[in-house]
Write a structure and sequence with these properties.
With about 90 residues, the chain is mainly α. The protein has one helix spanning about 1-75. The radius of gyration is 37 Å and the shape is rod-shaped. The relative contact order is 0.04. The mean pLDDT is about 90.
Length: about 90
């Protein structure tokens, strides 16, 4: 009879530990799911920002090229001294 009582107590302890283990695993799964959802949101935000930056660069590029070309033309002009004569 004592062996059956010992077996029953051992079985109860084992079931309690398994229950705690399953609860811990569930909490871990919830944490991983939450982190994955945050990563998805962050990834979407980063993608959107990259798209916006790309669009801005596409709009800026022609003006930057024009400014650079204008700068080349300006440096090609003969330089003048304060008196207005070429140097």
């Amino acid at each position: 009879m004592d062996q059956i009582a010992d077996l029953e107590r051992s079985f109860d302890r084992m079931m309690n530990r398994i229950t705690l283990l399953v609860e811990h695993v569930n909490k871990s799964v919830d944490a991983v799911l939450h982190t994955a959802e945050e990563l998805i949101r962050s990834s979407k935000s980063t993608s959107s920002a990259s798209h916006d930056i790309s669009a801005a660069m596409t709009q800026i590029t022609p003006g930057a090229i024009k400014v650079a070309d204008d700068g080349k033309c300006a440096t090609a002009l003969p330089s003048r001294t304060m008196s207005g004569s070429p140097s």
